[in-house]
Amino acid sequence: MNLRNTLLSVSLLVMTSNGQATEATDVLKSQNIFDIEYAADLAISQDGKKVYFVRQFMDIQSDRKLGNIWSVDTQSKNLLPVTTGDHADYNPVLSPDGKTLAFISTRTGKAQIYMKWLQTGQVAKLTNLSAAPSGLSWSPNGRYLAFSMFVEGQAKTPVSLTGKPKGANWADPAVYIDDVYYRFDGGGYATKGKTQIFILSAQGGTPRQITNDEYDNGGPLAWGADSKAIYFSANRSENRDFAPLNSDIFKVSIPSSKIVQLTQRDGPDSNPSVSPDGKHIAYLGFDDKRSNYENAQLYVMNTDGSKSRQVSKGLDRSINAIAWDKKGKNIYIQYDDQGKTLLALQSLNNAEKRTILSDKLGGQSYGRPYTSAEFSASDAGNVAITFSNPLRPADVAVISNNKVDQLTNLNEDALAHKSLANIEEIWFKSSADGHDIQGWIAYPPGFVKNKKYPLILEIHGGPVTAYGPHFSMEIQLFAAAGNVVLYTNPRGSSSYGKAFANSIDKNYPSQDYDDLMSGVDALLAKGFIDDKQLFVTGGSGGGVLTAWTIGHTNRFAAAVVAKPVINWYSFVLTADFYPYFYQYWFSKKPWEDPQGYMKYSPISYVGNVTTPTMLLAGESDYRTPISETEQYYQALKIEGVKTAMVRIPDASHSIYRKPSNLMTKVEYILWWFEQNKPDSQQQEKP
After folding, report:
1. Would you give the DSSP letter of residue 315?
2. pTM, whole model, 2 decimals?
3. C-beta atoms surrounding 289 within 10 Å
C-alpha cells in the first residue's frame, strides 16, 4: 500500500507536553488545500481604526482561487464582510474621506470597477470595460479614480486568402507574428495592444484615456497633490524590448495628457509615491549592470525630477515596497532579510538610520514557503501587515506603538485541529568554502528522535528568491506523509545581500549544489535520517538544481524534477522572457558560446544519472517550456534510467493556480518517492 495512504488511514503518534505519546488521527491531506484562506490587498483607514482586506479562498467547484472583501476593527478585532459571493473581489481602495470603497470585481463574469458607500452599504457598478482594470488609485480631492487597462491594437494580417466559396469550412487563418515578446507564461499568445492609463469620475460615467501611444504605461499610479497629474513608471526607451528591466518615472498632465520624463538612467525606476506635502516623490531603483541581481534602493526627488538622492544607504538588501508616513519625515520600507520580510521606518534626514518595526510579514505564498507580504500605513501611525506564521497562511495584523497585534485567525477552523509539521531553523557550513547557509527543517507529526525517517530535500526556484519560516502547503503535506523535509537558501538566494545573490552570476548551477549537499549532511549528522531514504525535488530553478544534483551524485533514492531548465541553449530560444535570460544569465548569445551554455546545462550530465527520476510540468508553461522536460525524459529513456513524465493540462509555470493542480503535484511526488523506496522503513535505533 502507498505509505501516504497508510499514514492517512492509521493514527499517528504525537508527543504531549510531558513527552508521552498520544493518538492523533487528523493529519493534513492534499484536499485540505480547498479549506485554507489568506489575507491580501490590505487597505487601512486613515484613522487606523479599520483594515479592509481581501479574504482569499479556494472554490472547490470551480477549482479557482476567489476572494471577498472583509473589514476588521483594530481594537475589537470584529470581522465583518464588505462583499460576498463566488467571484473575485480585489484591489480595495478607500476614498480620501474614508466614506467609500472602490474595488474591482468579476461578479458579472468580467472584471469591472465597483463602488461601495460604507455608511449606507449601497454598491454600484461604475464601468463596462472591455478589458480588466488594475491599480486603482484615488485622486486627493476624491473626485476621480485612476487605473491602468490594456487597449487592444490592430493585428497584422499581411496575407488574405481569396477563392473561399460561400459556406465553405476552411482552416483557421494563420497567425502572423513579428513582436519580440509574442507569448507570456500564464497569458498565452499575445494580443496586439498596450497598457494605458485612464481616469474615471467617482460618480461613474465614461472613463477617459489619459495616455495613448505605443508604450506600455501603467504600474503603481501616484496622484499629484493638486489632483492634476499622475506619476507612473514605464519603459519608454527606444530599445525597450531588449532593455527588459529599464524603466523611468514619468508625469502625465490630466488636463493636457502631456507626458514629462523625470528620471533617466540605465536601470529600473519604479513605485513612485508622492509625499504628504506634494513636494517630493519617493521611488525605487538601481543602476542596471546586467547581473543576475541588484539591490533596489530608495530614492527621493522633487516633483519636477530634480535633486534626486538615495536615502537608504548602508542597506545591503532589496526594498520592494514603500509608503510615506503622515509627517513626511520618514518612509516605510519593506524588504527581505534571511528568509523573513521586514518592515522598517527609514529616516529621510539620516540615510543610515532605519528602525525595524516587525519581521513578521509574509504568508501569502501558500504553495511553497517563499517570502511574500504587504503592508498598508495609516495617517494615525499604525500599520496593517500580512502576518506570517509557519503554521498558518497570511493573517491580518497591525503594528502600533512598536507592538504587533494579530487581528485575524482565518484558518483556525481548518488547521487548529490538524497535526502539522513543526518548523525549525538550521544553519550549517557549506563544504564549498565554509560559508554559513540557512535552512529550515519540517518535522513530521509525531516525530520521535529515536526513529529513522526519510528525508525530502525541497529546492526553491528563482534562482534569486528566498524561502523562509512561512506556511507552505507542499512542505506540510510532504511532512504529513511521514517525511522530514529540508528546505534551504543556498548561495544565489535573495535576502542575504548582493554578494551572496551574485555568487551564482553567470555561474549557475555551481557551488549552490555544494550548499544543498551540506544541508543533507547536516541532517544526517543529527541521527534521525535514514541515509537509504534520501529524496530530492524542486521546481523551476529548483528543478534545474534537482537535475544537476542527480547528474553529480547517486546518493538519492529518487528524484522529481519539476518544470526545469535542462538545456540553457534551447531554453533561451523558447522561453517567453528570452531578451532577459540571455543578457542577464549569460555573457554571450548561445551561438557565440555553446560550450558555456552546455557547461551549466543538466542535460550535459545525463550520462551520469542512475537515480529513478520523474519529470513534472505544465503543458502551457511558457517560462520553462515543457520541451525542456521532454528533452530530459527522452534522454533518461535513452540512458535506460527509470523515469516517468507527468504533464499537467493547461497549467502554466504557476502550477498551483488551480488548487487541484497543487494536489496533483504533491500526490505524484509522494507516489514516486514511495514507489522507489528501498526495503528499509522507519526503524527504531538500538
Report:
1. -
2. 0.94
3. 12
